[in-house]
Amino acid sequence: MTTDYQQARIALGVRLRELRNSRPGGRLTGTQLARKLGWTHSKIYKLENGKQTATTEDLRAWAAATEQPEAFGELDARLKGFESQIRSWRRQLASGHRPVQENWNAEIARTKVFYAWEESVIEGMLQTADYARHIFIRYTELMNSPQDTDEAVRARLKRQELLYQPGRKFRIIMWEAVLHARVCPPSVLAAQLDRLTGIIGLDTVELGIVPFDAPLRIPTANAFYVLDDRIAVTEDWHAELWLDDADTVATYIKVWNTLRKSAAYGTEARNVINRARRSLCPL
């Protein structure tokens, strides 16, 4: 969990404790409040000490139980403030992968220039249906989320229609490792690599591959995306981080531009992809 996220959760816990102690009808102990709400005492402890993320319902109940219902708006704004940046996979995937893909569809639709860095899988905008299906299946198993693989694949492919709309630019860089990662059967990966070679030359797509032997100005790290100059998005195993402050977005653009200096484009990129393709099976 990120430091900023944890600090925000601790700050919310401090505010909850203040409300408990400043109850107009007299201070409540943690045990008394737990009894009043029908919760365990451990939940009170975890919320006040930033060990657990409150839900909107938790905050509404807390404000009412401490006789300060007017505080709910402030509490909910705090929660939405840090959850809008740290979107836990557990919550996002509660209804499956399709809603997450549709949210991305809406964001990309309002984006003119999309920057991406990928070091472990083929960027979603360029995935074939079969490749995407294997990715979704693996993450569904990992996260124990609802199985809506076909719906998620259709939503992801729907987003790819934007690749063919004039006036957009998709500036995608990928580490050569993604061309070799066996996250799907070799036949599926081979078809995926063929798809990549077909993308090179599309006027809306700038596809770069950073070869294994390219000199690196900075180490490769986790995947990230920048939507115009308004949002930077990066992923971790527990959550997706949506970051919109100007300095942070500028940092991600700087990282992207630095990685770009190590990338191969055009014929050179096609050669790297074809080399990976030949390692799978004869053309």
What does this structure look like?
It is a single chain. This protein has 283 residues and is of the alpha/beta class. It has helices at residues 3-21, 30-37, 41-48, 56-65, 72-83, 89-92, 98-109, 129-143, 149-159, 186-199, 246-260, 266-280; strands at residues 86-88, 113-118, 169-175, 205-210, 224-227, 231-235, 239-243. It is built from 12 helices and 7 strands. The model has no long low-confidence stretch (mean pLDDT 93). The protein folds into 2 domains: 3-84, lambda repressor-like DNA-binding domains (434 Repressor (Amino-terminal Domain)), CATH 1.10.260; 88-280, Endonuclease, Chain A (2-Layer Sandwich), CATH 3.30.870. The chain is elongated. The chain has a 7-stranded mixed β-sheet. 51% of the residues lie in helices and 13% in strands.
Q: How are the elements arranged and paired?
A:
Blueprint: H1 3-21, H2 30-37, H3 41-48, H4 56-65, H5 72-83, E1 86-88, H6 89-92, H7 98-109, E2 113-118, H8 129-143, H9 149-159, E3 169-175, H10 186-199, E4 205-210, E5 224-227, E6 231-235, E7 239-243, H11 246-260, H12 266-280
Provide the descriptors you would attach to this structure in a database record.
single chain; 283 residues; alpha/beta; 434 Repressor (Amino-terminal Domain); Endonuclease, Chain A; 2 domains; seven-stranded mixed β-sheet; 12 helices; 13% strand
